[in-house]
Amino acid sequence: MNLQLIYIFCILVLMHFILFSFVEWFAHRYLMHRKALPSLLYRARAYFTDVYTNHAILHHRKFYKIYDHELDPIGRELNLRFIWTDYFVTNLIFAPIHSLYIWYLPVGSAALAFMLLCYMFLWNHLHTEMHIPSNRWFFRNSAFRFLNRHHFLHHRHPGRNFNVVIPLADYLFGTAIRASEVEEGIMQQLGLFSDSRGPEIREESIETCRSASTSQS
Length: 217
Fold this sequence. Notes:
The protein is mainly α. The chain is built from 11 helices and no strands. Helix 1 packs across helix 7 and helix 6 runs antiparallel to helix 7. The radius of gyration is 20 Å and the shape is globular.
């Protein structure tokens, strides 16, 4: 394969990846938290209604009242991940761009499709880890902890902090929000500043503190 073609492909993937922060921001704000499309679309396609209901109503309001601990087995998994339907619909929405690329620069269409796959893969794994902590080693880093706290504040303020993967659009559009002292205290309790987090870790910490107090007395 032509090395120049590989170079162009990689540059386009990176460019699309950064720009998709704005697409994620728009979709999260106007499709997942609002029914901003023409009403005809919601009547014609249940998909768009489900996108709003599953996220704004169920994921945010009914379930996950505790950020990283949901007891209901259905609610625990609901709307944590993009599915293949989302991938195909997103590519369909970008069909005009795909068409232009295919006409003028076919590698661009492949780069866009590949980037969408990578972005959704990252979104799925990050969002799942945020709400169902596994404490795997690759989530024990400052970058993930920053994104995790960013998303925690989105659950406290659903009209802010829309980005999950790259919060560039949040900062440029002024929707990024800083934690209050109370919220920082809650994040400390949830372990969002530490390497290990989740209800089991918190219970172990509480038990350790209790044991230490008992031994001292």
